[in-house]
Write the structure tokens for this entry.
Amino acid sequence: MKNRAMVLLLLAGLFFSRVAFAEIILLKSGKTVEGRVTERTNKYIRIDFHGVQLTFFLDEVERINGARVNVISKERQDHNSVASLEFLMAGVPKPIGEKRDYDAIFSMLKASGVDAVCMTFLYKESPPRSLGYEPDFLPPCDPNKQPWKALKKYKIKLLVPGEIAYPVSEPLPALENDPLKQLIACLGREGIIGVYSYDEPTFRDLLEPCRRLYERVKTVDPGIPVMIIHGPLFAGAIGEGNNPPSITQAQIDGHLAKFKEYSKYADIVGFDFYPIPKNIANLTSPFADRNVVDYRQAIRDYLSWLRKEVPFKKYILALQGFSYTDIFEGNVVEEARMAGARYPTREELQEMFLLSKEEGASYVIFWGQTCLDVSGLTFWDELLNAIKEERNGGVFP
């Protein structure tokens, strides 16, 4: 979820030139219309064409920015969709986390409809810096003390970070001293939602450690799921300066083959992508013909690929809990601001939830909110309110 490839892309200068993204809509009639998409549903898109709102049904549209448009039938939506999402949080904003008031933290998350946490305290991505409180959620643990007492009180489940519990550079601990066994003894089996394997492992060539971790978890408790979250595909190559060449189809095919291979060692699989704004994110997808895609197409395409190539699993998306100005320091922050860095809006979050459900995701985890400072707490409240609204069937209580 730290998205190391994203860091390299950003630092390579992909967002140094600001682009006003207008979509190019190719209709099946052969006509082309250029404008900014203001709304997209499973039935139509609406664009701003020089101040005039135009609506096109998807069965009229051939391509958007060169990428084919897939019309989702009602039958397919009903087959793929899930009734509700489970929400996970990879930590909380720095001004909240640094107090280490876990009773207050888990009370807040529970009231907002959050089901589970993976408690990271990383407050800068580049260079990486953390408050260092991650050991608070590792053995040894006492169920009568914080934070374990608060987790149980508010029935917040723990996603165990495999990166810390089973360091990739160290041999596995003896089974009798296994950290997962100790956490189960502390929280109970019902208090563990799963084990998060190594972060974006395909970008780090960690197939063998992923296999080793998976087999150890299943030895401890076969019923505990292992989760792998892959990094996404980027439309530009990494480390090529301000004018990176486009990713090749051979590179895409190679990445997708690795994603599929690694997913053998997980019960829950998915991707992370942080798509706001589109010009900084620079995402492409398995079905986008190497074109840059927005969050709508990214969600549809990645989950569609997972259902086809990695069936019989549960699916997760890691989504954006930050602005790109939050995760860096120095001159890069101003460059991100000039490129249009911003937070996802409430409407964008709601649409991401809807699309995730329609395309078959069971879980959404938010990453990056640990990098928020005091100025980002308004967005944090918006994020929690969006989750609360989703958990209440689209009605804000």
